Amino acid sequence: MFKIFSRQGQASPPARAEPALQVSQVPEVHNETGATTIVNYEELGELLGDGSGIAGMSADQAMRTSAVYACVRLLGGAIASMRMEIYRRNGTARSLADDHPLWWKFNEEPCSMMTAPMMWEYFVSSQCFYGDAFALLLRDPRNPTLIEDVIPLDPRSVWVWLKDGRYYYVVSLPMTYGEEMLPVAFDQDDILHFAGPGFNPRTGRSMSVLKYAASRAVPIAQHAEELADKAFTKGNMSDVVLRFPKQLSKEQREDLRNYWVRKHSGLGNVGAPAILGEGGDVAQLKMTAVDAQLLESRSFQVADIARAFGVPPWMIGETSKTTSWGSGVSEMGRGFVLYSVRPYLNRYEAETNRKTFRTARFFAEFDVTRLTRGDPAAEAAYYRQAIGGSQGPGWMSIDEVRARNNLPPLGGTCAQVYFPQAPASGDTNASDGDKGPTGGDPPPNPGTTDPEGIPE
Q1: Which structural domain, as residue segments, surrounds residue 427?
Q2: Phi, psi angles (nearest 5°) of residue 304
Q3: pLDDT digit string (tens) for 369-387?
Q4: Which of 7, 154, 194, 429 has the highest CB neighbour count under 10 A?
């Protein structure tokens, strides 16, 4: 399925040292930190519980909570909408290496099973629910520096073992399309391991948001939703009282209560007219303190879940104490990128650069400009300054500005960065502002052809 087992019978290159590890020889790990290493799906179910109690909650059950779904969707969607650019270092400068083979893997198709946005969203959900995200780097057996596929792994099927200062990953891979699984050991160089907060170097695993920060908030939110569902399903009949001028017997009260529930409770009887005899009257009760606390509790749980996932509450619809409109929305959006999304990006960039590039001449970095743009007027003023519009030195060319807005380059002087040229001696009429992009000599172009090509 993953083309892993087709390598049997092929000799590994001498320069690569494969881990000398037998799965049967992997010892049982005991730790005193309270962390538990996940070996298979059954142990995961025992670890998280069946969801019947407050403390037990699985990923599938948690995603039935709208606040959890919104947080995971928001974080994953924000990262999936960015491009991971590949850069080439040229001394103190850098240039885009969009012809690098890994650019396609991280931005279009990491493997035949999914697209790059699907992969990044899967990594985010894996970290939210299980603490860590893993991916197998399937290398060319004849050239280990060439990565053929980047295959995301289910965190529940990965077991981490620390030996002699290196991590080894035992992964349960499907032999066929059935349920048979085969444990395979990989060296740390072949696994992208995106750890999260609370990473334990001894166990090689991180803390799960669902198991720790949101372990109480999510079940409580679901219980509050169930209470509200029951109230609306029954037609909220507890808010009605029937009054009669004469005293009713016990049998009459019971018959009247059953009649009223049968005729007026449930969604199918909403709006049915009430017909009472013997001077009967229907009175509507005011909202009780319990009802008010239920509504307040549901609102609080949304904010509590958002806090656990590191997402601003207003971005998932909780706007009771703030606004999601106005001039401050762009600033709050940039704050979301800086404080919520940027930690994920740092982990992805560091692990990718450490294990996918042979030399330090190449590195990967996410382009966050799409999510940090301000209003059009402010953006236009920024670009005007960037190309030297105030007669000062620019730091971007017109073509670079056009590239950020998905426009084709114009070439010529538009590809040059503007530098004002000092007037000649005795020339008092020279004006730098009239020179435009050709007012000075352009800086040396750092994006020259790499004489060595792309080694990866």
Answers
A1: 376-456
A2: -65, -40
A3: 877 776 677 788 888 888 8
A4: 194
